[in-house]
Specification:
Catalyzes the hydrolytic deamination of guanine, producing xanthine and ammonia. It comes from Marasmius crinis-equi. With about 475 residues, the protein is of the alpha/beta class. The protein contains 16 helices and 17 strands. It is globular. The protein binds guanine and zinc ion (ZN).
Length: about 475
């Protein structure tokens, strides 16, 4: 068994993330946290271990300037769009899809292209600290299998889906029929289920049904996908919703019988507790109520929402209403595969909403029209994401029985690392755990993520030998 000793930051609740500093965190051979003891003093480590009956343990002490947080969860990204990253800011969604995105995704018709591109793409998300990632592939079965294989071989926890899209897309990038789309989806599910679950017996890579968005799916396709997920309640679903005003108008015109955009997915039985809805910027009140009732989760992708001029989602209102919210990078709508970047943009987005609200009129809710706190940002990046993925019993925070999906963060400037903790912090008196966390969230990068653990196994990080 491994025991980590030092500063552990646990976003178990929105307000008490500080409570976990100086913890002993015991991780068994399967990467499961067996127990966690808070507020342990150096002199009491051996005694505490003896009390716990630990004889053969490897104690991994963390130094000043190092701390552990749960791994980041990216609830929405597009693997085949990474080659486009940083481009397209002059377009809004529908033109951007046509001019920038579909031409790139179409290149993944060639498995060889996917084999060359995907390893680097997945490696970048891992080193950015993403321990669980919800990937959209392209519409192709072959290259999405390649993506799943690479994620599996690199040891990341992930959901991998191939896009379902049989209409309102260019001839060169559209599925022939609902039947082809469904058949390829079933083959992908079988392929992912055939991947070895590893020593823990818990599969890290899981399939996810991925109707691109309502606009690109015909009624027969959505009906068949609804039948498929109804036959297996454990199947996750991901899609886009209410991102852009023109998109919403178009979607509503295609489904005049549905009261709202959310109602479209609901009418095809695609809205449920393991559904991940990306963006959700312009939801009507009725849609919020429906999403809450169905216990679906929202992936907040603020960098993409700024980049594509889509708008600013009212995340505070969703949190007040008890709707599940996590963060997404939405590459390449977003221009960074790092959840740190999503955190910064989520902070700015919340500040803009707060500034736009009536000055002086503090909202009655806890979150609405208020800026997100550091604790809330960390929560959205970890436990909030776990809830959106319907995995909160397994990941997102540290507690007995949860998997050790974690980052060792190092803010010291040692061995060429990125120094966030120089003499200035000494002078400013900001060497506290809170200050280190804040600096990491706002100024850190992958150089400060020394180790990336998934299910107790180190799979990446700047300090990995
Ligand atoms: N809506 C449908 N497809 C996409 C996509 O690839 N990116 C974003 N941001 N929105 C979408
Ligand atoms: Zn997206």
């Amino acid at each position: 068994m491994q025991v980590f000793y030092g500063s552990v930051i646990n976003p178990e609740t929105l307000t008490s993330y500080k409570a976990s500093s100086n913890a002993l965190l015991a991780v068994n051979a399967q990467g499961i946290v067996e127990w966690i003891v808070h507020d342990v003093q150096d002199s009491l480590i051996q005694e505490t271990l003896l009390q716990k009956g630990c004889i053969e343990v490897e104690v991994i002490p963390l130094k000043d300037g190092q701390f552990i947080i749960p791994g980041f969860i990216d609830t929405h990204t597009h693997a085949p769009q990474l080659p486009n990253i940083g481009t397209g800011a002059q377009y809004e969604l529908l033109d951007w899809l046509e001019k920038i995105t579909f031409p790139m995704e179409a290149k993944f018709a060639d498995d060889k292209f996917a084999e060359a591109a995907y390893p680097e793409i997945v490696r970048r998300t891992i080193n950015a600290g993403t321990t669980t990632c919800c990937y959209y592939g392209s519409l192709h079965l072959g290259s999405t299998k390649v993506l799943a294989d690479i994620v599996h071989s690199l040891g990341q926890r992930a959901f991998v889906g191939k896009c379902n899209m049989d209409r309102n897309s260019p001839d060169y990038y559209r599925e022939d029929s609902p039947e082809t789309s469904l058949c390829d989806t079933q083959k992908l599910i079988a392929h992912i289920h055939s991947l070895d679950a590893g020593s823990s017996g818990i599969p890290l890579v899981r399939p996810i049904i991925t109707p691109r968005f309502a606009i690109s799916c015909s009624n027969p396709l959505l009906t068949q996908l609804g039948d498929l997920v109804s036959s297996d309640p454990s199947l996750h679903i991901q899609t886009h919703i209410s991102e852009n005003r023109s998109e919403i108008t178009f979607a509503k015109s295609l489904f005049p019988e549905c009261k709202s955009y959310a109602a479209v997915y609901d009418s095809f039985r695609l809205l449920r507790r393991n559904t991940i809805l990306a963006h959700a910027i312009h939801l009507e009140d009725e849609e919020m109520a429906l999403i809450k009732e169905r216990q679906a989760g929202i992936s907040h992708c603020p960098a993409s929402n700024f980049h594509l001029n889509s708008g600013i989602a009212p995340i505070g209102e969703y949190l007040d209403k008890g709707i599940k919210v996590g963060l997404g990078t939405d590459v390449s709508g977003g221009y960074s595969p790092s959840i740190l970047n999503a955190i910064r943009n989520a902070s700015i987005a919340s500040k803009i909403r707060a500034m736009q609200a009536n000055v002086g009129a503090k909202s009655s809710g806890q979150f609405k029209n208020n800026q997100l706190s550091i604790a809330s940002l960390l929560y959205l990046a970890t436990l909030g994401g776990a809830q959106v993925c319907d995995l909160e019993d397994h990941i997102g925070s540290f507690g007995p029985g949860k998997s050790f999906d974690a980052l060792v963060v190092d803010v010291r400037g040692v061995a060429g690392n990125h120094n966030l903790w120089g003499a200035d912090s000494e002078i400013a008196g900001t060497k506290s755990l809170d200050a280190m966390l804040e600096r990491f969230l706002f100024c850190g990068d992958e150089r400060n993520i020394s180790m990336v653990y998934v299910q107790g196994r180190c799979i990446g990080g700047a300090g990995r030998s």
